[in-house]
Amino acid sequence: SYFCQIPERGLLAGDLLMFSGAHLHFAVVLTGGEFIHSINPDGAILGHVDDVAFMTRLIGAWCVTERNHG
Question: Distance between CA atoms of 37 and 48, rounded to whole angstroms?
Answer without folding.
Answer: 11
